[in-house]
Amino acid sequence: MEASLLNNFEHLSPVWPHFTQIHVDYAKGPYIYDINGKEFLDFTSGIGVTNTGHCHPRIVNAIKHQAEKMLHAQATILYNTPITKLSHKLCDLLPSELNCFFFSNSGSEAVESAIKLARHATKKTNIICFQGGYHGRTVGAMAVTTAKSIYRKFYQPLMSGVIVSPFPYEIGNNYDSDELTKRCLKELENILLTQTSPEETAAMIIEPILGEGGYVIPPKPFIQGLREICDKYGILLIFDEIQTGFGRTGKLFAMEHFEVTPDILVIAKGLASGLPLSGIAASKELMSRWITGSHGGTYGGNILAAAAAIETINVLKEEELVENSEKTGEILLNYLKGLQDIYPFISDVRGLGLMIACEFLDYEGLPDSKTAKRIRELCVERGLILLTCGTQDHVIRWIPPLIINKLHVQDAVSIFSSALLQYKEEKNE
């Protein structure tokens, strides 16, 4: 019976889209192996989760050790050493202002927590988010998500009090970044005059680098301008670093690129190498304004996930994976820019660390999702797993584990180059 059920997925909800038809057996490092033994180079990291690679032996051992002691220590009933130790380790990594933590399970939960804290702490209601941002698919998180309409389709109205401000990005990148920054900051100031006054605006929430919205890096003055506006009006600044955190961009956190510290930092994905753990960081003073007992969760700060997170941080530091992200990311970026010179339908290559995008536009300069999809499919056929993103899925994103080396990059680029060539030949037929 087990064999007959091997490829029978009829009882799984079709709400999950599937980027591949790979039926996985096991994974190791940067590789995934299907049930037939075929090897795939995984440049998705489970959407930026397995930054330390699949099944890193040190993290597996930490999980095994904790699993033999305890699996669930509910946070409102028991104190436990792993979650306490994790909070101290995070304190050592972050700016001194971010010294107090609340843990949950998913990125969406962490965003909900950040919004709730901001409203409690300020006694104000409204939240400003930014066009193209992705923050999750629960009601509050979805209300501040504008990366794609499908996430909120047939589910509106959502949480009220949300206002969307422009993000400095235009398809095709044919703009002056200084001018675009000025325009976006001016419009933000206008929003505070016309839609939500500072006296009723609790926070602004932003991904310092857009994730689902297309892997877009804003100009440094834009992010710094947000900090200045928030300080000017007494508004909290929330950074959603769910995808950008823990070495992904060549820095431990993307905020370091902009030299800006938020009031609330949202973390998840790369925190625990695949176990469900997320959280928010803020000052102890800000956290103290949260009403005790008003927020929580049965599984938040799970002891097993905390043990994995502790060892994840150890591995990131001791194996210099953040530094490797910066170094190897530059190699990958240069290879891809070389391919852009050969294939003009790649309109832009951009990225920081190992968070890199190839954007595809058609001959009219419009988003070309068909090209991005076909090239991604050709890569999977050849043993390289990539994902798309962008409002119209016209961007191929590169999110490999931070353990990769130059040889892995060369293998991946070789497959990508082969897919580009086949696609070009198909177009010319």
Structural class based on helices, strands and sheet pairing? alpha/beta
Distance between the termini: 46 Å
Strand content: 15-25%
Given the C-alpha coordinates, what overall shape results? globular
Average pLDDT works out at 96
Give the low-pLDDT segments: none
Order of helices and strands: EEEHHHEHEHEHEHEHEEHHHEEHEEEH
**CATH overall fold name of the largest domain:** Aspartate Aminotransferase, domain 2
Main sheet overview: 7 strands, mixed
Give me the CATH architecture of the largest domain, please: 3-Layer(aba) Sandwich
CATH class of the largest domain: Alpha Beta
Strand order of the largest sheet: 4-10-9-8-7-5-6
Classify the helix fraction into a percent range: 25-40%
Instruction: Supply the number of helical segments.
Output: 13
Annotation, overall tally of beta strands: 15
Going by CATH, the homologous superfamily of the largest domain would be: Type I PLP-dependent aspartate aminotransferase-like (Major domain)
Instruction: Supply Rg.
Output: 22 Å
Question: How many structural domains in the coordinates?
Answer: 2
